[in-house]
Amino acid sequence: MKPTKELLAAMTLEEKAAICAGLNMWMTQGFEHHGIPALQMYDGTNGIRKTNSNEEMGITGENIPATCYPTGSAIGSSWNTELLHELGVALGVEGRQMEVDLLLGPGINMKRTPLGGRNFEYYSEDPCLSGELGAAFINGLQSQGVGGSVKHFACNNQEFEKMVTSSEVDERTLREIYLSAFERIVRKANPWTIMCSYNLLNGSYTSENEHLLNDILREEWGYDGVVISDWTAVNDRVRGLGAGLDLEMPGPAYYNTKAIVKAVEEGKLDEAVVDKSAGRILELVRKVKEANIESAPSNIDYHELARRAAAESIVLLKNDNRILPLDSEKISKIAVIGKFAKQPRIQGAGSAKVTPTRVDIPWDEMKNIVGDKVEMVYADGYPKDDHLDEQMIVESVALAASADVAVLFVGQPEYVESEMHDLETIELPLHQQKLIKAVTEVQPHCIVVSSSGSALAMHSWIQYVPGALHSWLTGQGSGRAIAEILFGQVNPSGKLSETFPVKLSDNPSHMRIHGENGKLYYREGLFIGYRYYDRKEMVPQFPFGHGMSYTTFAYSDLKSVQQEGNVHVTFTVENTGTMSGKEVVQLYVHDEECKWNRPEKELKAFAKIALAPGEKQQVRFVLEKRDFAYYNTKYNKWVAETGYFQIAISSSSRDIRLRERVYCNFGEEPVSYHKFSLVNDWISTPKAKAIFESYLAEMNKHVNEQVILDDVFVGFWGDFPAIKIFQMFGQTWLVDRSPDDVIEKMIAVFERN
C-alpha cells in the first residue's frame, strides 16, 4: 500500500466517508483503484464464528466449523496469562487459515451482576485479572497478523434494553472498575481495534461519547487504533465521527456516508476529522496486510489445546473426605445422571456461538478411561424444559442407589444464557435441585458437575454433596477435561474469577439490576464482586479466587520492599502434597491510611505456578505506583498517597496465607485550594496551616470570640469550609472585604510561596 498521507490525498471526500463504514455485514470497504484491500472480521470471544456468507448475520444457523475454546467466564478462571497468549496465537494461526483479518474479541466488561446475559463472554468481576488476561490474549493474537477488538467499551453490563439505557456511573467508579481493564490492555497490548458498546454512558451513546472516546481513550491513554461500532450501535454518525468513532458496522450505510459528506460541505464537520478516521482505518489495513508475523508452531493441535484450556479452567469447589479423584480400582459401578453428560453445554448462545469442529462427550470420555474395569449406568435425570418430572427423579434415585458413586451433570439450560436477554435467576432449575437432594438421600458418595456461564447459587443443595466441580462452558474439549479431572489424570487448577453468592439478593447490584425510565444507576460504586462482600463482612458461597486442588501448597518468606518507586514482593510456595499441581497465587493491596473510601483489598498481581511434590519456587511481583493509587476526582488524576499499605498473599480472596505491612513513599502530591476547601484541607500541610493561622490571628484582633485551631475546635469545625469560619466568626472584621476576598488572598499566598 502507498503511504497513508498519499492515499488520503488521492481519495475523494465521498471515498473517505465511505471507508468509515463497512462494505457488508463482515467486511470493511476496499478500493482496488487505490490499492486498498478490504478486511474481513468475525465474532471471536471463544472461537471463530465465520458465517457462510458475508451478507448474513448467521446467529441462528450453523457456520463454518472452527475450534470452540472455553468461554470468557471459563478461561477467566484459568488465571493463566501464558495460556491466554497461547490461545491468542492459535486463534491467529487458525484465523489466517480461514482468511480472518480481525477477531471481534475478547469481551472484558466487568460482571456487575451475575444475571448479565453475556457474562459467559466476559472474564471476571475484577479489572486486574480481566486486563492481564485480555492483554496476553491480544498480544498472542496480533503476533500472527490478526487484529483483536476489545469490547464492549464501556459499561455494557446488562442485556435488558441495553440499546436505550444509560449506564449512570460516577467518574471514580468508571475509572477504577469499568475502564481499568481496557486501559491495561491498551497500554500492554495496543489492540488494533476497540469496539464501542450499545448503551449510553451518563446520557450519551458510547458511539458518540466524546469524554469516553476522545478525552480518555485518545488523549489520556494515547490510543491510536480504530474504534469500531458494535453492529448498529451508531446513533448520530456525524457526532460519533467527531468524538472518535472511526468505523461503522455493518455497512454499507449509504445514508451516513451522505450525511458525513453533507456535514463537511456545509461546514458542520471539518474534513480533517474525516481524514483522521479514514487514516486510522488505512493504518489498520496496513497492519493486517503487512504484518510482521512472529513464528508459531507449524502444526497446532487445536482440539488438544481446547482440552487443555478446559482442564485449566474447571474449578474444584468442594472435596469433602477427598471423594475426588475417583479410583477406578476401588469402584465397581458408577451412576452417571443428567443430560449434560451426553449432551454437554460447551458455550453460550448468540453472536459468540461457534460451530465446533468436534465435541468431546463426558460419558464417552469417562468410559474410555475406566474401560471394562467399572460398570457405568446412565439416566437422563431431568427434562429439556423446566417442568417437574417425578418419574425421572425416581429412576435416577434407583440408579444412584445401586452404584458405588453417583456423578450428576447439571447446569443452566442453553436458552437461559444468551445475548439479548438477561438471566432471571442464578438457581438451577427446580427439577435439578430436587434431583440432587433426592439422589444424596440414597447415595452419600455423590459428585455434582455443574455447567453455566455465570455464578450459580447452590445453597439449596451444596451442603448435601461431598464433591462439586464447576465446569463452566468450557468448549469442545470439556468432556475429556472433566473425565480426566474426575479420575485424577489431571489435577484441577481453576479458580473462580467471580464470586458465587449464597443467594442472588446478596449481590450488591440486586436492587438496581435493570434501571428505570432508561437510566441504570450504578449506586454500589466501587463495591462490586469481592470488594462488596469484604466491606459487608458477608460470607459468599464460594469467594473470588477460590479453587481446590488434589495436592496442597504452603506459603512462606514474604518480603516487601520499595526500591526506586516500585515495590518488590517475594515469597515462596511449596507443593506439600503427593501430586503435581498448579497453584494460583494472588496478591492483594490494602491502603491503611487513605481518607477516601477504598475497598478492603484489591487484586494487583497474580501468577499460576506448576510444582511437583516437594518442589519450592520463589515468586516475584513488582508493583508500580499505579497499583497503590485511586482515582482522585478532586484533581482528576490517579493518586498514590505516601503511607502504610498491607500486602496480602492469598490462595483466594478469603484465604490469606501471608501478610506484611509496608511503608511506601510516593512523594507529596501537589496540593491546591479553592473557595470551599475545608478547614481540614487547610491544616493538612504545615505551609497551608501557617497561612490559615496568620489570617485567623488577624481576625482575632477584631472579634470577641477567638478562633484557635486546637483539637476541640478542629474536631467540631474540621469539615466546615474555611470561608465559612470567617463568615461565622469574623463579621466585625469583614468591613472592607468579603470572605471571598480573604480566601482568594490565602490561595494567592499559598500558590506564590
Structure summarized in a few sentences:
The protein has 753 residues and is α/β, with parallel strands linked by helices.
Describe this structure in words.
The chain is of the alpha/beta class and 753 residues long. The chain is built from 22 helices and 24 strands. The protein has a six-stranded mixed beta sheet, sandwiched between helices. The chain has a five-stranded parallel beta sheet with strand order 1-2-3-5-8. The chain has a four-stranded mixed beta sheet with strand order 7-6-4-15, with no helix packed on it.
So how many helices? 22
Strand order of the largest sheet: 9-14-13-12-10-11
Reported for the largest beta sheet, the result is: 6 strands, mixed
Backbone CA Rg:
29 Å
Helix content: 25-40%
Mean pLDDT: 96
Low-confidence stretches: none
Strands, total number? 24
Label the structural class.
alpha/beta
Shape: globular
Strand content: 15-25%
First-last Cα distance: 57 Å
